[in-house]
Amino acid sequence: MAETPGGVRHASAEHRDARGVPGSSLFAGIALELSGSLSIALGAAGIANDTIFRASRYVYQFNLTAWGWIHVVIGVGLIAAGLGVLLGKGWARGAGVALGAVSLISQFMFIPYYPMWSITVMTLDIVAIWALSRFHAG
Questions:
Q1: What is the pTM of this model?
Q2: Which of 10, 35, 79, 81 could be a cystine partner for 124, CB 3.0 to 4.6 Å?
């Protein structure tokens, strides 16, 4: 709550945590970290040629190991961006939005292999992008 010169208290536009990080950035950072962790787990399963993935006659059908490495690289980037957002780094918001969009597209392309996992990660990417896009510094 912020107090005006007249003594009237108004709710602030953004709630902040103990370090001064706005609530939407805290939420976005956590969502990016979780999306990155899930992407790395998915990638590790792909690299190991796990038998849980099946997609027949699919346009974006890459070698499963290639898909695994794509998800691992994106996941590492998401974790780095999420950590940057949580630490309040200036570069992190843009990186988070960009990597969230790349993750969203790659998960969309991976839907035929493992739909529920991909849709879950896509949801995290969308809410992270939304939270980062609505935060205004200052």
A1: 0.78
A2: 35
